[in-house]
Prior knowledge:
Oligomer: single chain
Helix content: 25-40%
Number of helices: 11
Low-confidence stretches: 1-34
Structural class: alpha+beta
Shape: globular
Mean pLDDT: 90
Order of helices and strands: HHHEEEEEEHEEEEHHHHHHH
Strand order of the largest sheet: 1-2-3-4-5-6
Number of strands: 10
Distance between the termini: 76 Å
Amino acid sequence: MTPIASKRVLRKFYSVRLVFALVLFFSTVASAQDATRDYSDLDAPEHLYWEKELNDPFTKFLEEIKQGKHELDYSSELAYLKSMMKALGISRHSQLMLFSVTSLQTGLITPRNPRAIYFNESIYLGYIPGGRLEVISLDPELGGIFYIFDIPTSNRPPIAERSDRCMNCHAKPSVGNVPGIVLKSVLPGPNGGSVNAYRRDQIGHHIAYEERFGGWHVTGEHGINKHWGNKLGRLFQGEISTTDNLIGQNFDISRYAAEGSDILAHLLIEHQAGFVNRVIETSYRARTYWTDGGNRLKPEHRDELKSRATELVRYILFADEPELPGNGAKGDPLLKSDFLAAAIPDKQNRSLREFDLRKRLFRYRCSYMIYTPVFRGLPDWFRKEVYSQLKDALRPNTELSREFAYLPTAEKRAIAEILIDTIDDPAFR
């Protein structure tokens, strides 16, 4: 072979190698991108957050209003609020009041005009006198669906806007970057703006009480003496000072549906929000991983989701719940009554809604939220994994059970018996 021919062969060889290397490089990059595809992309085909038909309770309620299935009171905005809550199965005694500027309607919220929150397990309703109603309604697959609307003044359905602006706060890292429930603890200034913030990006019953309730009114009998509720702050020369801001001190409580902002309602919403956010994030991850694997799970995704199931079981069984200090909490009797009315009793008339309130929230430390549609919205195979680990945690003398040694044997047995009698889910069997 001549030297010129030899060079031509070499150039061709290196050109082929270069093309192959580039193809391999871009294929590797594409694979890496596929492997790390963002589970929180709400527009992804497996989610289609803005396009899928909704299955949340408030969307159904709006349709029922159009069909004339509900009689609402239009005589005043407060009368409308109360009648709507009754139709939705929301106790007015679940009322929580906050005076920090945390809403789309920031211009209306001040210590003189606080915002009220009312809730059940699937709907969270925000009310500000003179403002619009705000709703978070939980779709079993998509998570929080956000609505805002004017209170109707005549017998007609509300014109409810599905709000995307809520996502600026309700789909951030604190809620797993998917549509969830935000709870904050801040020290508001005299006009509602924050002077300081606590428990950043943390939501759930594990949070220490001394980090909670900032910007909220807290009422009722309890032994939680160190917390940030009922306080206004002022920053002067680098030093923060606080003054009391007691409920009704700066506003007329009769403008609201109830008279308090009870400690029990605070404990319940904190637990629920932590549960909901964990479940919704896992739902989004599971759908993305299942799609990426071609309707199966890659080993690394299976391992990750199994670990998330373990974390969820810990939350369900209140593994990190701080002890109630002092003499515990009493709880509003009317809220207790409304809450217990939704109990699902077992054969011995026990339920997961029975309160303890001496050292902890519940008598049987297993979350009633496992009965909810948002939990049932998890993929069947994931629920089976959660149930399997839950059963193992409640059996005596298993390795997993030893991690839950804070639960006495009798309590574990009672929880297991309640679950067997009350869970109507094929994935549990």
